[in-house]
Amino acid sequence: MTVRKLRAALTAILLGTAIAGAGAFVLATTAQAQTVSHQVGTLLQEAQALANAGNYRGAMAKINEAESAPGKIASDTAVINGMKNYVGVKSGDPSIGGKAAALAKFSNDYNAGKYRDAIADGDMLKKFDAMTPQNQLIIGQAYFKLNDFAGCVRYAKTLPGSDTALELQARCAYEIGDEITQRQALEALVGRTGDPKYWTGLLKLGERARGLSDHNTLDLNRLRLLTGAMKTKDDYISLGQFAMQFTFGAEAQAALQKGVDAKLLTDDRSLKLLGNAKAMAAEKAANRPKELAAANASPQGDLLLLAGEDMIGEGKAKDAVGVIQNALKKPIKDPNNGQIRLGQALLAAGQKAEAKAAFAKVKAPEKDAMVAHLWSLAVR
User: Contact, 94 vs 105, CB < 8 A?
Assistant: First the structure.
């Protein structure tokens, strides 16, 4: 699963101070009773009594009468407005209480589990200018609570692109198998935050792409390490094994050592794999001059390209850039791989703009373009 749960902030959203503060008004008016004019105070006391009896229209009529009373003093207006808000919220009827009542109805419907009513309340909220980004998220959550994931996706796409809205979109898209929308949401989250948890979901989607080569899969594992999305023992083992498959001993050694340092690779098999990676790295380092000489002498660029890629894992990115550029001057079997390697080396060397340009040249096939695009996201 790419996004297992929405943030706690989404599921715990509250509607705001207008509703939360309504119940405190009775105490406030009692404390302020000595500061309002006699006529206004009398009318508001009658309004309060009517509201407590459930006669909200009558209560609002008394409030309107108080509002029109002659000779009001400065503090009357604040108390009148407070009582108007109190009655409006208590009524839950927008025809009586306007915006405050609309918010109260919306809150009551959602909290009572009347999710279809809460969704329908959206038009009412717009009518009374009470639709906020927070309330939009609550409506989106109502779709989710109803298991109407298709409706959730459609609605979430209309929301302002906050992190929580994008998470909701990705979560609901996952439920209906809409990988395109899921990927778009996760890419937006990665671009905004760089958070490893979003990278985890995005890379899992990448692993499900059709026809991935072993080199593509190696790249996805490299990106997992690069973006901080490496979490499990299997993550480290996978990168180590794929790197060794291509005889990139130094890269395998570095990845497996990180797994040991994270106290995830402690068993004999993992430690033996690390030992093999160290031996491979040492052998490749010793043979590097001979390897480069043979590669430079070859009319094809593939051996040179492989050597340059290995040098990235050895921490020699700047040297690798030149080696890979020389490889690309010759014919190579897989030009897309050549561009991805050049981008990888440039990124490791800190040349981000050049790296992004190299990745952008990979347009097809889809699997290679997808991997190159993920690398470009890591550049950002």
Answer: yes
What are 315's two structure tokens? 């921490």
- The 8-class DSSP code of residue 99 comes to H
- The residue among 79, 26, 16 whose CA lies nearest residue 48 is 26
Burial of 373 (0-12, 13-18, 19+ CB in 10 A): middle
DSSP helix, strand, coil percent of the chain (3-state; round to 5): 75, 0, 25
Residues 6+ apart with CB under 8 A from 117: 109
Interatomic CA distance for residues 95 and 303, integer angstroms: 78
CA distance 311 to 237: 21
**Cβ–Cβ < 8 Å for 96, 57:** yes
Q: Tokens 């508001």 appear where?
A: 44
3-state secondary structure (DSSP) of residue 299: coil
Which pairs with CB-CB distance under 8 Å and at least 24 residues apart come from 322-331? 323/292, 326/296, 326/301, 327/295, 327/301, 327/302, 328/301, 329/301, 330/298, 330/299, 330/300, 330/301, 330/304, 331/299, 331/300, 331/301
CB-based burial of residue 120 (10 Å sphere; 0-12 exposed, 13-18 middle, 19+ buried)? Answer: middle
Distance of CA 11 to the CA centre of its chain: 15
Instruction: Tell me 35's DSSP state.
Output: G
Segment 303-359, tens digit of pLDDT: 999 999 999 999 999 999 999 999 999 999 999 999 999 999 999 999 999 999 999
351/357 Cα distance (integer angstroms): 10
CA-to-CA distance for 167 and 185, rounded, in angstroms? 7
Q: How far apart are CA 187 and CA 202, in angstroms?
A: 7
Residue 112's pLDDT band (cuts 50, 70, 90): very high
Return the HEC string of 332-368.
CCCHHHHHHHHHHHHHHCCCHHHHHHHHHCCCCCHHH
Three-class SS of 139-158: HHHHHHHCCCHHHHHHHHCC
Asked if 184 and 373 count as a contact pair (C-beta separation under 8 A), the reply is no
**Given a cut of 80, is residue 26 above it in pLDDT?**
no
d(CA 170, CA 199): 13
Left (φ > 0), alpha (ψ -120 to 50) or beta: where does 212 sit? beta
